[in-house]
Model the fold of this input.
Amino acid sequence: MRGLSRTSRDVPPFCIMDGTHTLRGINVIGLRRVGFGPKPIAALRHAFQMLFGARQNLKLAVERLLASGEPTPEVREIIEFIRASKRGVAFGPHHSGVDDADE
Done:
């Protein structure tokens, strides 16, 4: 979470949250620091775009993501996190463009 952020919803793994309940992107710098390579980061970016790039029904977005191919273990972790959420998941930005934070 960035400074002055707040949420009462769950924030998926690998994501950066900004403002109120708003996911801004994948924490690319943090992932690189812990040793993630380009392929897992690209898969996470793609998943983020499909799930949070536009306001949509998250359950349907998860199904579309699963239908697009076999997810990587990291993407599977996000999907399982979303499915297990009891409070609801923070959502993507209001605008259509998604920015990868910390790039």
Observations:
- Residues 3 and 18 are 8 Å apart (CA to CA).
- Residues 38-52 form the longest helix (15 residues).
- The chain is about 40% helix and 10% strand.
